[in-house]
User: What shape does this take?
Amino acid sequence: MDSHRLWIRIGLVLGILVLGGVLVALWTTDEQREAPPALSRTQMRVQFVDGDGDPVPKAQVFVLRDPDEQLEESWAPGEATLTLGPVTRPRTVLAIARGYRMQVVRDLADSTRVTMEPGYKVHVGLRNAPKALEERHIRFLIRIRPHEDLVAKTPGMTSESLVDLMAHTAGRRSGPRGLPRGAFGYAVSRTQARKGILVPAGGRYRVHWGLMDLKAGTWFSLGDECGRAVRVDAGGEQYVLDVTEGHLDRTLEGLKSSVNRLTAGDDEDE
Assistant: This one.
């Protein structure tokens, strides 16, 4: 009798265990059938402003993305506002504008305002350069180009594209009227260079001087022969470029030859 009761108790325990296992299995199956919640797909607005809270004029922005990714974006220049959407994951946005430091905003997940700081200032002067040339329409210009090490600070970009941005975020053409697009980087007058050139990032650059014919819209320089490497760290650095008589004569000769070729080409077109 005792043996019979023992078997009954064992059967009840086993039945409870089996029933519990079935219930646990059913509950787990229901959990697995539920799809994970979808990520929020909302629009994101990013505005770029200066220290006074005003929209940064002529700013340009770039959104990093996969090559085959489709992402709607619109840019309102007057409001310096980027609108993205729908977005399903955090974004990295690069913003650059002449006179301001380059801004890389990483892991952007919500609408925000980004304050852009003034660029790093580097002063460049000319030594032994005449105050004025005989041809009053020919002027000294200083050009500055970023070194390759700045590529690491501009995700998804090349140094050539950074030069183009430096040259054109303030307008279609860089510096004085007539300079070709993106060909020589950021150009300023020697007065502006002496007061300070604002560059978008710290690092290494090359600067050189040349001559610009304002009437013909033509520029000529001997390049590195009339330049040097410079480094911008905290800003405020000062550098001097020598203007030798030989370099000046050769630059004037090269500029006049360029103007003559341009004029001859125009005559042939007619």
Summary: The radius of gyration is 32 Å. The first helix runs from residue 2 to 33.
